[in-house]
Amino acid sequence: MNTKEKDLKYIMHTYGRYDVALKSGKGATAYDEDGKRYIDVSSGIGVNSLGYCDEGWVKAVSQQAGTIQHMSNYFYSSQASDLAEKLCSLTGLAKICFGNSGAEANECAIKIARKYSFDKYGAERNEIITLKNSFHGRTVTTLSATGQEVFHNFFFPFTRGFKYAEPNNLDDVKNNIDEKTCAIMLEVVQGEGGVNILDKDFVKGIADICSQSDILLIIDEVQTGVGRTGKLFAYEHYGVNPDLVTVAKGIGGGLPIGICMCGEKLKDVMSPSTHGTTFGANPVVCAGANYVLGRVSDETFLSEVEKKGAYLEEMLLKIDGVKNVRRLGLMVGIEIENDAHDTAAKCVANGLLIITAKDLLRMLPPLTITTAELDEAVNILEKTLKEN
After folding, report:
1. According to a count of CB atoms within 10 Å of the terminal CB, is the N or C end of the chain lower?
2. With contact defined as beta carbons under 8 Å apart, do 240 and 217 qualify?
3. Is-contact 242 235, C-beta < 8 A?
4. Tens digits of residue pLDDT in 45-100
5. CB-based burial label for 21 (10 Å; 0-12, 13-18, 19+)
6. Collapsing DSSP states into helix, strand and coil, what is residue 209?
């Protein structure tokens, strides 16, 4: 059996796969098992922030794997403590907690918010407001936090304690707040929801409400963080100071990691046995993340991300069949006249690895992608749209 046949026989069908078996890659270029070449503007849904097999990242990971590959969290790890120090220094946040995915990071933030409120106000103050059209993960609790009805099925009973407000409608947020509200959780760009960029006044308004009422502000930066939007974290575009920030995807550069960061007033909320993970803070993963953060936190690097994003937007808007582009940095949603899912599959057949978000095409290219590679991606998309 070939790879596809084995997959269909032995792996649960939880993904609608494209008809491609990838074998290798370098930068923004990937190759399948037949040697066919692709330009990848999906980067593993924003995970391969430095592209495939960046030499510095490979060296950092390989050296750590040959030193010590894993240890229990009962022991100290220099790779983990170095990464925590860098993140706190860069953000002004106080402490972090390691996990293995965005969903785990969001679970951790939810637990911290509820425990803070429990300790200070009692057990009844436990509700969290999220936004409609949001996406926060696929565990039972983070599915419940996700503000999309389509996800609230099959896996009953879902975790209680969540309310959903309309994006960019501050009055609706206020109407959902009561004596039980302990936190408000949002993505400043709703990635899975269709690359919806929240209004600055709306986000600032929420931050003000949270500050005045001791309600915690949680920013989910799983897809937007680590340079994706042209800032180290997307909340920096909004001039707010969150109490909790969750990070995953791009910070690992290709290895699984989830991080929950908290501000000063939350740094001592969690104590031994209130949270834990076997693989969180894995030294090999942290070695890769340390390298990624060192590269991406550079202001010149971040400036280049924005320049590439602006160039890509300009080129996309010249294509017949492209109606609109939603973009922040290199987080790009493309409204087209044709069906996005059908177009994405045809793009893949034409050598462009692209994904969708709702009824949009979505590009999350490696932050290191070159202008020539962006040109090639745009050309393939244009060719595909003409074929439709």
Report:
1. N
2. yes
3. yes
4. 999 999 999 999 999 999 999 999 999 999 999 999 999 999 999 999 999 999 99
5. middle
6. helix
